[in-house]
Amino acid sequence: MAVSKIYFVINTLQRGGAERVLSTLSNSLSSRDYQVTIVCMNQALRGYPIAENVKVVTLVNRSKKQNVWRRIGYGLMTGFRLFRLLLLDRPSCVIAFMTSANLWTGLTCGVLGIPYIVSERTTPELTIHQLSKFHKWLSYHIYKNSKAIVIPARGIEEAMKQEYKFRRLHNYHLIRNPVYQFKPSTGKAVHERKFILGIGRLSNEKGFDQLIQAFSRVEVRNIDLLIIGVGEERSNLMAQIRQLELEDRVFLLGARKDVEHYYRAATLFVCPSRNEGYPNALVEAMSNGCACVAMNCEFGPAEIIEHGHNGVLVPDGDLKQLTKEIFNVLFDNTYRAALGRNASRIKETNALNLISDQWEELINT
User: Do 47 and 119 reside in the same domain of the chain?
Assistant: First the structure.
């Protein structure tokens, strides 16, 4: 019997990898006649389009000033409102994205007897491994009782199993991230010169300082570096750009709603991350036929790229090799074109319909 009413739970719908996947999946499942509701635990601007027939509910508008009493109040209010919402609407299945949403969903669904799925989207070093002993114990029992622990990269499962209790779980389920479907190209010009492209949050784990450093060593004057994204590292990256005297060749563009035009115009895409879950920007670049170079970080790039065939993998943290590979791809037109052609086949392996089928099968199991 097919499930008719599905809830998704996530912290917010602001711009980010997990948020993009959840938004895309919600839209896709709603087009298959499911009643889809997205529950945001906190208020934030939406980063991606949501279909008109997808309902969005926000539980709490969290204050930036958080003392211990405010945190307790926030927790109680979040739990109560989620419990009341699920009690009244009784969805057939609830799907949570990211650790905090997983815990709240597991607690409320466990009490109400509603089937639920949890999903980890990034390296456990930043999530599960950072929890207190009590919260690790709680997570284990919540994840154990879920229909499935969905992961986008097999390496995430292996890392989670570094925690002894999580080795005993047998409900891990691999579903890759779908290729985001951009609007058809309009041939829009985005930059007057050839450029290397990087896209992602300006944070330490995304490694754009590594990309800027490697770019400075390539020493090619007829190409620029464009980085799209916002985040807390912007001022540090600007200082690095000034120190390397690259103000006229490296540009931090902030957020852009027309990233597809940059993918299609880029000479090369580089993913310099220190860690990932399953890098959406890399998948998007490949689907647009970009030749791609990626740091072989945890996790995702090695499960997406076959080195030398549909992209180039660089040993994690090896800036000398990153510089070399960027240079090699830039100056070998035949090699670069072949990488781009092979990369574009990810549109088939990670097609939205295929990924939606996998989620639908799991939900209805």
Answer: yes
